[in-house]
Amino acid sequence: MEINPFGIDIPQTDLDDLRDRLARTRWPDELPGVGWDYGVARSHLQDMVEYWIDEYDWRAHEARLNEVPQFTTTIDGQNVHFLHARSPEPGATPLIITHGWPSTVNDFLGIIGPLTDPRAHDADPADAFHVVAPSIPGFAFSGPTREKGWGSNRTARAWAELMRRLGYDRYGAQGGDFGSIVSPELGRVAPGNVIGVHVNALVGASAPAAPHELDLLSDIEREQAQANHAWWHAHSGYATQMATRPQTVAYALNDSPAGQLAWNLEWFVDHDPTHTRQPLADRDAVLTNVTAFWLTSTAGSAARLYREITADGWGRPPASGVPTGVAKFLGDRAIRTLAALSNHVTHWSEFDTGGHFASLQVPDQLVADIRAFFRTLR
Fold this sequence. Notes:
15% strand
């Protein structure tokens, strides 16, 4: 039941070892002229690694993370690390936000300030939140996991216990990517506590989970579902590996920082709706996530998440009845009819900007949509 203050303080020897390993990267060959068609382009990865060695400053990002109060606690036998930023507004709404893969809580540093202190950001103080941002079990400072079973349901139950320990009886939930699975699940395991769920990058509503669901779709939605299916078939190699044989890839990820960076870039680059094959976030943000995985030796543990989600089942869970808001940013593939099968959708927004990593790409728009949704629940 203890909640302990936590601060990140990586030994310099670990940073020196990382730089040395990067400098000794053994580069594979690459077919001429293939660009990104066979995977992450070598020239791009080499540029990123050179920047990682010569210019990226982990200490600066470590200090930025440490500006937000951090804690650890043990829930269901698992160490859980979390940020807890309380609002100066006494009537603020508690909000637990969940990241996805290959992200960390670092993705939320650009939205915590506006969410907790809207008055300081020229917004309505009535829209204030007390923000709790846990690291998913197995990720970075919540890792590694020590036993099987840490999928969406167990994580949601841990989040309910975390909010109880923090003294929050009524609260909202928000999340993207894996967070878009956990946050609605939190509404199912604790419907009496969760006042509303807001999601972006809603990954569970892009394609039918059963053949009969096709009959529920409009012609336009059916075309979108077919396009989504084709896209996933061409881009799901990384997910198939982690969902079936995560231990095998863990050896490479835990031994080669350049290899770990390439593995993470798959998801960042493949979500680029402009097809320019560039990372969808500032390279420092990408490298901070990768470095956090590397320094905690949790790239393999994080990869196991896909195996655990698969064990939970990818079917269509029942709706919780909790009001749900969906923000669909550019490049997201959620279909409203499918989303409504598992969620009580009361708010739906579509944007022609942003992307899968909205908290990094369009933080102001994400914050505005979170505020707009929870405003309807006051």
